[in-house]
Design goal:
The complex is a heterotrimer of chains A (63), B (164) and C (334). Chain A has 63 residues and is mainly α. Chain A has two helices and no strands. In chain A, helix 1 runs antiparallel to helix 2. The radius of gyration of chain A is 15 Å and the shape is elongated. Chain B has one domain. With 334 residues, chain C is mainly α. Chain C starts with a helix and ends in a 6-residue tail after the last helix. The chains are: A mainly alpha (63), B mainly alpha (164), C mainly alpha (334). At the B-C interface, helix 2 of B face strand 8, helix 3, helix 4, helix 5 and helix 6 of C.
């Protein structure tokens, strides 16, 4: 039995979702700990999230 | 992926690239350049103004401190001056008092002397006058007494009686 | 713009999108509703040679074709929305699912002013007028006036929070024009995509490729020695590792703009697909409760898309700045 590619894409999206969730959560923690560094943390968070998102999209378009 | 490649439109890519690069170059010349320069100039202006204000503040503070110092000095000086003046005043007053006292004493003494002198003079004069007057009176009485023979006799008799 | 106007505009745009769907529905009533919604979405995502506002109101756009060394220019009105073919200079063209094909099997290259190109031009003119006017207002006084008051904080944000921290105080100036232009271009054109005009320029891979390619070219052209040194001869690692790392690093430089391209394209496409699918649910539910629920969801999603429009512009600019920063960074620490 062959597993359809869309299932793989779904798995990648789950992975990417968990990854972005973790980034967001950690960023929240970091902001709570150091509210004065909010701007820097947000920038780093967005960059990291954007990179993971790129992988997610790559998987979707590979289908 | 195939869909992406199929959807790729050369025309759209061409127009997008052409228009976008033209937009960057045009905006760079006519918008971003002037805008960023103006903003930078303004920021520099604000920075300069702030620095100048800071400087003025520091100067003001220095000036204030100076003023304070000068004021304190002046106050001390004033106190010293006042003290001196007070002392001087006391001295002068005391001196004046002493002087006045001695003067007054002197005057008093001389006045007393003068009074005494005058009194003596007056007394002597009075004495002389009284003597003169008594002589005059005596003379007058004698004259009147001696003008009448009876009386003269009587007087002689009386005087004889007394001398007896 | 105050929040009331914003919400009002959103409601209007959601309603207008609805009306487009509703009209399509009314005309092809006999087709299966699900297939029809799918077709409408697919049609919406595609570029077109006419600028269709409603079924009654559409503008023909010029078609420019480069076929076999010849340039053929004619109006898209000749196709009558793809129902007829048109012959020019002995070549017969017809419209097949939005693509122009030549009858005798020649492959025309399509340089037409399509709907998307029209909107790129509109945004081009808009930005040109907007920002040159803003620049002029600085000549009168040091403070911005009118539009400038809204735009200046954004310009300053890009300079102070995107360009300077990522590129560095020393080199950031030469990239500012590109960063500002790309941010405002993506943002404005994304916002146009949310209006009921039915355009979506940034969900074309050609557009995002063009943008990402400019970032790539700028990075490559302005890169210093140390950037190339870190790619081909990574300092501080053993020699055999250097041979392994070089191709990986080289691939990395291509993956970076590729991810820029895909990210913008996919975000905007996904946003449009989801928004239109939820609007389509209204016609599937056909009920009072389900339809109002879909409307509420679509409204919330439209708000989210408004955020995404700005966020994608921000991320594109931010990552471009990051790549530029890595190109001009001076590694003297190791």
């Amino acid at each position: 039995m062959e597993i359809p590619a869309i299932v793989g894409a779904g798995l990648v999206v789950i992975g990417a979702g968990i990854g972005i969730g973790r980034i967001g959560g950690s960023a929240m923690d970091a902001i709570a700990r150091q509210p004065e560094a909010t701007a820097k943390i947000q920038t780093a968070m967005l960059i990291a999230a954007a990179l993971i998102e790129g992988i997610g999209f790559a998987a979707l378009f590979a289908v | 992926m195939d869909k992406l490649i199929n959807d790729f439109s050369v025309g759209l890519f061409f127009w997008q690239s052409l228009l976008f690069i033209a937009l960057i170059l045009l905006l760079k010349k006519f918008a971003w350049g002037p805008i960023l320069t103006a903003v930078e100039e303004r920021e520099d202006g604000i920075k300069d103004a702030l620095e100048a204000a800071e400087k003025a503040k520091a100067e003001m503070q220095a000036l204030n401190a100076d003023n304070e110092r000068i004021l304190a000095e002046a106050r001390i000086e004033r106190d010293v001056l006042l003290k001196e003046a007070r002392e001087m005043k006391d001295k002068i007053v005391n001196e004046a008092k002493d002087q006045a006292n001695t003067e007054a004493d002197k005057i008093l003494i001389s006045a007393k002397e003068q009074i005494n002198n005058e009194k003596m003079k007056a007394i002597t004069e009075l004495k002389n006058q009284v003597a003169d007057m008594s002589i005059d009176i005596a003379e007058k009485i004698l004259k009147s007494e001696l003008s009448d023979k009876n009386k003269q006799n009587e007087l002689v008799a009386e005087a004889l009686k007394l001398t007896k | 713009m105050n929040i009331k106007t914003l919400i009002f505009t959103l409601v209007i745009s959601v309603f207008s999108s609805l009306s487009i769907l509703a009209e399509e529905h009314a005309i092809h009533g006999e087709k299966d509703i699900k297939t029809e919604i799918k077709e409408t979405i697919a049609h919406h995502l595609m570029d077109s040679h006419d600028f269709i506002l409603t079924h009654d109101l559409s503008f023909p756009l010029p078609i420019i074709l480069y076929t076999d060394g010849n340039l053929d220019i004619f109006s898209s009105a000749n196709f009558h929305h793809g129902t007829t073919s048109h012959t020019v200079n002995g070549r017969t063209y017809s419209l097949d699912h939005g693509h122009i094909v030549e009858a005798s099997g020649l492959h025309p290259i399509d340089f037409s002013i399509t709907k998307n190109v029209t909107f790129i031009m509109i945004v081009f003119l808009m930005m040109l007028i907007m920002f040159t006017r803003m620049a002029k207002s600085y000549k009168k006084s040091a403070l911005p006036s009118g539009m400038g008051r809204l735009l200046e904080p954004i310009v300053l944000y890009i300079r102070d929070d995107i360009a300077i921290p990522n590129i560095g105080e020393k080199h950031y100036k030469k990239y500012m024009s590109y960063l500002l232009t790309v941010f405002f271009f993506i943002w404005i054109i994304n916002l146009f995509g949310l209006t009921p005009l039915g355009v979506n320029v940034t969900n074309n891979i050609a557009v995002t490729l063009s943008l990402a390619l400019i970032t790539y070219v700028l990075t490559t052209v302005t890169a210093n020695k140390s950037y190339w040194g870190h790619i081909f001869w990574m300092p501080g690692v053993p020699v055999p590792m250097k041979f392994i790392l070089a191709p990986i690093e080289l691939l990395g430089t291509i993956i970076k703009p590729f991810s820029l391209m895909i990210r913008l394209y996919a975000n905007i496409t996904a946003g449009h697909v989801v928004l239109m699918s939820i609007l389509g649910l209204i016609f599937i539910f056909k009920g009072w409760i389900g339809s109002s629920l879909s409307f509420g969801l679509a409204f919330a999603l439209a708000l989210l898309e408004l955020l995404v429009a700005a966020l994608q512009a921000y991320i594109f600019t931010m990552l471009s700045a990051l790549y530029f920063g890595s190109a001009v960074e001076e590694h003297d620490d190791h």
